[in-house]
Amino acid sequence: MNRVIAVFTKESFLVPAVAIILGLLTGAIAMLAGGFNPIDAYTALLKKVFGNAYNFGETIRQITPLIFTGLAVAFAFRTGLFNIGAEGQFIVGMIASTVVGVSFDLPAIIHAPLAIIAGAVAGGLWGAIAGYLKAARGVNEVITSIMLNWVALYFANWVMNAFFIPAGKQTSEEVKDSAIITIGWLAEMFDNARLHWGTLIAVLAAIFFYIILWKTKSGFELRSVGLNPHASEYAGMNVNRNVVKAMFIGGMFAGIGGATEILGVFHYQAIMTQHTGYGFDGIAVALIGGNTPFGVILAAILFGVLTFGASGMQFSAGVPFELIRVVIASVIFFVAAHGIVKMFIKPILKKKKEGGN
Amino acid sequence: MNSVKKVVEMRGITKRFPGIIANDSITLSVGKGEIHALLGENGAGKSTLMNILFGLYQPDEGEILINEKVVQITSPKIANDLGIGMVHQHFMLVETFTVTENIVLGNEPKNGLKIDIQSAEKAVEKLSNQYGLKVDPRAKIQDISVGMQQRVEILKTLYRGADILIFDEPTAVLTPQEIHELIEIMHNLVKEGKTIILITHKLKEIMAVCDAVTIIRRGKVIDSVLVKDTNPDDLAAKMVGREVNFRVDKTEAKPKDTILAVEKLTAMGNRGVNALNNLSLEVRAGEILGIAGVDGNGQSELIEVLTGLRKATSGRVLLNGKEITNQSPRNISESGLSHIPEDRHKRGLVLDFTMSENMVLETYFHPTFCKGGFLDYGAIDKHAAKLIEEFDVRTPSIYTPARALSGGNQQKAIIAREVDKNPDLLIAAQPTRGLDVGAIEFIHRRLIDQRDQGKAVLLLSLELDEVINLSDRIAVIYEGAIVGIVDAKSTSEQELGLMMSGGKVMQGGGNDE
Amino acid sequence: MDWGLILSNLVHDTIVFSTALIFAALGGLYSERSGVVNIALEGMMIIGAFTGAVMTYAFQDSLGAWAPWVGFIAAGIAGSIFALPHAVASVTFKADQTVSGVALNFLAAGLSIYLTKIIFNGAGQTTTLNSVFNKFSIPGLSEIPYIGHAIFEAYPTSYLAFIAVFLTWYIVFKTPFGLRLRAVGEHPRAADTVGINVKRMRYTAVMISGMLAALGGATISLTTTSNFSHNTVSGQGFIAIAALIFGKWHPMGAMGAALFFGVAQAIKSLVQIFGLTNYIPTEFIFMLPYVLTILVMAGLVGRSSAPAALGKPYDTGSR
């Protein structure tokens, strides 16, 4: 528990908090430059999210995949790897669950879990490709995982076009009811917002993340390899195997995210013209969350609110949706360059100290 | 010496780093044509002071006079302009560049837009000949010996017209013969009107070449004396702050069975050529076998092969008669080998792990600490507390990250962990590098204890004194092979030095290939 | 089938598609030779493609055929300005250079479309440009059968790219600036001790990098696509990084690698021309450049030629 509390200690909490404020300010500047009123826009964003039960439920729906992709990126980070491939892992998770969801006819108690496991394994293997290339060939995982994002996109479209999409259509058949994980009664409470069991699975995944990293032998190795591969090798750990393992587990998180998105939200897979964006936002989620599971959940809530609310901003304040991408990018930037952030918080910290004396 | 013009005067220099005062109101005065030693232990503040003089750091207080004029040295460039040059301990040379490129860097002669490399090479050659340095201007740094690289560093300062040369621990990486040649070069430099400041912790060197010496301890000047008025014991006491005995007390070794046998071991180095060539040696229970050699003759590769971090291409390694050649580090460690790595930050510790976690870095999977895949932190913490107590590791708590500890305490922690494994063979690589005298004494004591308990100890060190003092037998490594094994009691530095340089005195620069 | 013509077409298209990669890889070269990892090439290309298209759009009515030149130059300026935050983060604030680069990539993707929507009334892409670069036939040489079409009927930007390769080689390996640039990337402390301002060198290198990558981006919107949208650049910045690594951080090597990756894209159009799409799913053709990049990276052995200080912030006060 100490570590969870540690999230709130001065710097690890203040830096992301200030980075978020700076990101929102950057967004505000971009809006002013574009001739918009940032206060109106951000108000519209919040109104959209908290305006009614449906939208609030949909925000939770939006938060769920971000927890998964955030965990995917954070887990790899803990092992010293930068997993930019959560997007691709998410996509292959989507296809795998669609394939299982559409192709089989099984009792719900087996079908839905099987479809989710298929997504997990697919995402895990997709991540493991980048991990393997890093371990066996020394290839920078950043570049391979980015390339794999594109490969996943076109691969998904091919699988769908070739096997699952009837001629002339843009979407696959719906998955069987037995594979669907929507929570009917909860959805009704939220005016038919698309709520599903995936949200609970996401929270469980975060707990799994914590236990595996900080309570088990495997986690000891993964963290050790992440912090100092040379010392880990010296201490008899297999660095390469841990790299692959970390990318596999990270990919699994993203893959489950993709699966629950299909099984809980869309129930079918469509031809994609571009990436979903969840994998990319997961990077911001992981960084803001300090690569801790609890932090990831908090950060996912924040970015879920921002990305879902952005559509309200576009609708009522006329601000293009992409503005929120500018905000998220700036937040990542400020977390990376935390020296800039510290410059801003220095006076605050100083005052606090003086006040204390 | 008061009649001589003062070329360097540093007055009341204070420099603070977070948590420590590296220099506390230091005053230093060097006369023209003098070889002035700056003596102190590791971490005493010598390098900080010289980095201030060279413009790499700014002092928080105090003033500097060069040629009796007050100056502000805010960058190395200004130091260069004032005629101050530095021969760094870790050479400031770009490995992939040629000698000439390194020397002219920052002051390139131009021909139109291009660097005029021909005239630069001529200038380098001329300087090299003037001071008898024998450097090949066209050789690449990565292809020449360490001694040659040091001469390139000297040439760099001369090319920039330096009159005041700072040598930072220049002998640390040299063979005794090369040290001899360096001393010659220093005398040549002084003859040509240069002034030299020599940073060192070696008393012998001071007695051999210096005119005056300033002793620094914990950031403060203890004394400044003429070499002719002092003696090594006096200097040692002033440096450490108490009487020290550099001889290690130990009883006669009682060697028993062979623990480690290395037979005709060959392995590739990082450059793709053989770093070990048919190397053979034996270490017996109850003895310390020291390996002496110039850095880069296969020492690191030997340890890596023995510990499983590097693959041997041929030959065998036997531990207690059992073959461990090319086994995994884990298997070798479990077979009874412990290893104090030469780079404790790179290999020895996970700096961001707690001390507690670091103490089980190699044993976390043992049933004592791990049950059913889950770690038993209670047992891990108890184990760490015990070791830290036993080996007097000064840490605020067992949950403190290793990063926060001093070098000496980090090293003690590693030794605690390695000794606790109760190994048959303990490999100690550069076990005292960068530590102060107190920690060095502690570590030497522990290594001898291990020997007396009947363990085999393999010691690798670049400090020849350390090897001679600690070892029972000394094996000399040269170009990846053992060129001779001698009795530590009856050998001399000269004998070892000759063997370390392959039986002949190294000379001339130039390309290896 | 006239194989000579097919080959001639292939080379011709390869040069078209390699141009952007060459510019971007050279951009990466300056930055990485100075020791700053530049994974933001993608974003810099996006900014270049966007600025090039918008400025050309703004001037095409008044300047006609000169408008793309204005767009091209403006792209270079915009790219070097856009690179500035990467330098600030990496050099001054010692940030993780990869994370900072990723942030800039996202920023470019978001900002460019945000601005496009504002300028073009909510449309996610610019209108198709009337005035873009036209291919320029070198008199005489372009008459040579096959070879003429293959090499001497290219966009002016392609010729510029090859000139940039030669210039970069000269600058990096023959001039004092180049020697200092490489020293800073190999051993910044050594450079510092001889009076070279490491930070200034790195700032300069990152900004040159931004300029060149943006020029590369602009060559896409001002030659092949004639507009700017979210998928104008689509990963070519990362392929350029792969080309740089494949080319061992050498201008000639990077050019060779860029041409190699250009072939993958040229094959794409060739396949479409020959109607092979009936046999090979289009998705696989789209995948080709990315798969090829992965394969090439996996096939490389060792990375010893990377600048020694690549990715390491330089701390003047470090002890």
TrEMBL record, chain A:
Primary localisation category: membrane
Cellular localisation: Cell membrane
Superkingdom to which the source organism belongs: Bacteria
Topological relation to the membrane, as annotated: Multi-pass membrane protein
InterPro entries xrefs: ABC_transp_permease
TM segment ranges: 12-39, 59-77, 84-104, 110-133, 145-165, 195-214, 323-345
Tagged with keyword GTP-binding: no
UniProtKB keywords: Cell membrane, Membrane, Transmembrane, Transmembrane helix
PANTHER family: ABC TRANSPORTER, PERMEASE PROTEIN, GUANOSINE ABC TRANSPORTER PERMEASE PROTEIN NUPP
The name this protein goes by in its record: Branched-chain amino acid ABC transporter permease
Species of origin: Brevibacillus porteri
UniProtKB/TrEMBL annotation, chain B:
Pfam families linked: ABC_tran (PF00005)
InterPro entries noted in UniProt: AAA+_ATPase, ABC_carbohydrate_import_ATPase, ABC_transporter-like_ATP-bd, ABC_transporter-like_CS, P-loop_NTPase
UniProt keyword terms in alphabetical order: ATP-binding, Nucleotide-binding
Residue ranges annotated for the ABC transporter domain, each copy included: 8-243, 260-504
Entry keyword Cytoplasm: no
GO molecular function, one term: ATP binding
Designated name of the protein: Heme ABC transporter ATP-binding protein
From TrEMBL, chain C:
Membrane topology: Multi-pass membrane protein
Record's keyword annotation contains Disulfide bond: no
Transmembrane segments: 6-27, 39-60, 66-89, 101-120, 154-173, 203-222, 284-302
Keywords on record: Cell membrane, Membrane, Transmembrane, Transmembrane helix
Record keyword Isomerase present: no
Source organism superkingdom: Bacteria
Signal sequence segment: none
Localization, UniProt: Cell membrane
Primary residence: membrane
Name recorded for this polypeptide: ABC transporter permease
Species: Brevibacillus porteri
